[in-house]
Amino acid sequence: VDGQVVRRAQGGDSTAFDEIAAALADQFYAVAYRILRSQPHAEDAAQQALVAVWREMPRLRDPERFDAWAYRLLVNAAYGEFRRRRRDATPASLDDQLPETDPYPTIHDRDQLERGFNRLSAPQRTVLVLQHYLNLSHDEMAQVLDIPVGTVRSRLHLARSAMRAALEADARPARKGSLA
Amino acid sequence: MNERELDRLLQTWFDLGPSVAPPRVADAARLEIRATRQRSPALRFWMMATPVRVAFAAVVVVTAAAVGLALLDRPVGGPSPISVSPSPTATATASASASGLPVRGMPGTRRSPAGEYGWTADAGSRTGLHSVVEADGGYRQTQIVFAIQADCFTGEGTPLRSRVVGANGVNQYAEPYDAPDVLFMPEREEGQITGAYELRIEGRTLCVYLTWDASTTEEELAAARQVVESIRGEAHGSDGLRIVFSLPEGWDVG
To answer: Are A51 and B32 a contacting pair at CB < 8 A?
Structure first.
């Protein structure tokens, strides 16, 4: 997002915020969906994060660091939705299912990935998404999450171990179209 | 499974999800920020440059010492030396809420001037205002009703899903909305249409029902929508709300 637009929005210019919302909405939603695995909750998280960006914007000291700051607000909103989803125990909707025609991963792998991912905490899910979807480095993840790099590494290690365990839990009786 | 296989599997799996947000996400956010005040920039002591921090701390210490000495110097138990009457400034600030949103009243009963108006009320309250334009021997009107209640879309048989902006009960807009209690006038007239807004303000809900006649012009409807978009609000009391909004000339409470 352009620094000038950020400064205008910091001054209360709602048309500047409209530009920011247009630029962020897709990415916010995509990241929130991958953390929450639910379209309605991802919509809520993305919307809440956009409003938080507007509300908190005057407190952003360095507009050049807007992206990391904005993603931090998104992650916080996703954590809130994650807690709410756990509390409400909302099952994933049919809309959340991935298309059947995608060749990789196999349906079996997807089931295992979903199952493994569902067992992860919100912070563990988040580091996986930041690494594998946004392709952020450990340093960038630490900046977004406002935690030490060592904590990022340990969270990643735990999350990856859990996902590997989920994938290897079965003997893979129907493992076709392997990635290897 | 080695590390590379796991990386590829995770990456491919994450790439499969949606990457485009439904338009209502940004639309609802845009709507909500119209009723959301930005926070003021915080003065962060530890983020100041060291010399500024030292100077700031010195000023605080000196001021505290001066106030302490003045208090010690005061006669104990005696009458206050000066009787201070409320100053004009104090009177003016009495009309502002603790968190800064000004306290404004509703417009008058006959064609009020343009300006900023407002409403402060508890949950369960409702009020309304309208703009009446005489035309062709009759009249046409645009109405706005405010209500503080948990659910803005309780009318029976209302096509809530037809044109909703927002997500999951937050900042929704439904049109047409048909319920008699959302009208400023008691009965719906032929051709009248209502759009219902649900605005979330600091965890509470303000329902805004905008009703217009079949003969209402595009300009009049656009002006009424601007009134809705100008609403700013904050929590008031245990369950109420305080709002302020801008009106063009000619609106009144009837």
So the answer is: yes
Q: What's the order of all strands across the beta sheet hosting B193-201?
A: B173-174, B193-201, B204-212, B138-148, B126-135, B251-252
Residue B145, beta-bridge partner list: B128, B209
Q: Which candidate in B5, B11, B12, B164 is best for mutational testing of the A interface (most A CBs within 10 A)? A: B12
Q: A92-118 pLDDT, tens per residue?
A: 443 444 444 444 566 677 788 888 898
Residues of chain B neighbouring A30 (CB-CB closer than 8 A): 17-21
For B116-137, write each residue's pLDDT tens digit.
999 999 888 888 898 988 877 7
C-alpha to C-alpha distance for A50 and A14, rounded to whole angstroms: 12
Bridge partner residues of B206 (DSSP) = B148, B199
Closest A-chain CA to B4? A180
Contact A30 B11 (CB under 8 A): no
Distance between CA atoms of residues A40 and A57, nearest Å: 26
pLDDT of residue B119: 92
Give the pLDDT confidence of A8-63 residue by residue, as tens digits.
Answer: 988 888 889 889 999 999 999 999 999 999 888 899 999 999 999 998 888 888 88
Instruction: Looking at the complex, report in whole angstroms how far the Cα of residue A37 sits from the nearest Cα belonging to chain B.
Output: 9
Q: Which of B176, B121, B172 is nearest to B149 (CA)?
A: B121
Q: Report the Cα–Cα distance between both ends of chain A, in Å, rounded.
A: 39
Between the CA atoms of B5, B9, B12 and B15, what dihedral angle is there, to the nearest 10 degrees? -130
pTM listed for this prediction: 0.51
Q: Which of A32, A56, A35 is nearest to A43 (CA)?
A: A32
- Which of chain A's residues have a Cβ under 8 Å away from the Cβ of B40? 58
